[in-house]
Amino acid sequence: MTITNRSGLPEAMVRACETSSxxxxxxxxxxxxxxxxxxxxxxxRHWDEMTDDVSDRIWAIFGTxxxxxxxxDSPDTFVEEYTFLKVGAYNIPGRIDCYNMKTGAIxxxxxxxxxKVIFADFDDWYKQGMIYAYLMTKNGFxxxxxxxxAMLKDWSKSKAKxxxxxxxxxxxxxxxxxxxxxLEDIEKFITEKVNxxxxxxxxxxxxxxxxxxxxxxxxxxxYAVMKTGRKSAIKLYNNELEATARATEEKGYVEKRExxxxxxxxxxxxxxxxxxxKTLKGxx
Length: 284
Hints:
3-stranded antiparallel sheet; 10 helices
């Protein structure tokens, strides 16, 4: 990947953004397993052709800085530890930010948006934590709990003061217990994911199945009940039949608003080689 510097930022920031491919041949990292097969394989195949700008990686720099500040062992913990497991034809490495040997807790440090907390959008953290827990238990460690310590980069003190439902601190902790059932479920997820990646690697770029709705961060389609002469919708519906009924009642009409695949349009570095992304852009 080539790092560009459109804004002429200091060289130190450019060096901080220098990166190598996240996955060496034969490896699929724990966090990579959370991505869609198409994104994973296209990123691996086209890594040397990909570009990214320093200005678009500023939060990655911030996240790296946070991790660096917290890389300190204590008598009961070890930090930035790699653990590996062979699954099928691949090695699955996971880098644990912090493991507390006394409590059996895995801790991971994150930078996140307040919206992640407001919408309780923690499914990816749960899967990441459980993958780490699975790798650790398979390597002989006891894991009782996963804790994600998130620093909310867009937190507002004034909003917290006036809205009790808003995160009340710029640091948010999301945690959950590790159960036998959870470990069994994540083992199934890992096995099925690895097998599907192996199969997808035999396909050409365009033949690889598109990422799922969840992997694309796609919003649902909505149906807006509109009325001639009015710019805003009377009401938005997830169900077309309900929208149609309301439109008939209001003597208006229904306008379908397609759900946006946010990951594809804004955050996927491999989108240039993705047939699904090209279709989205063509639709626009």
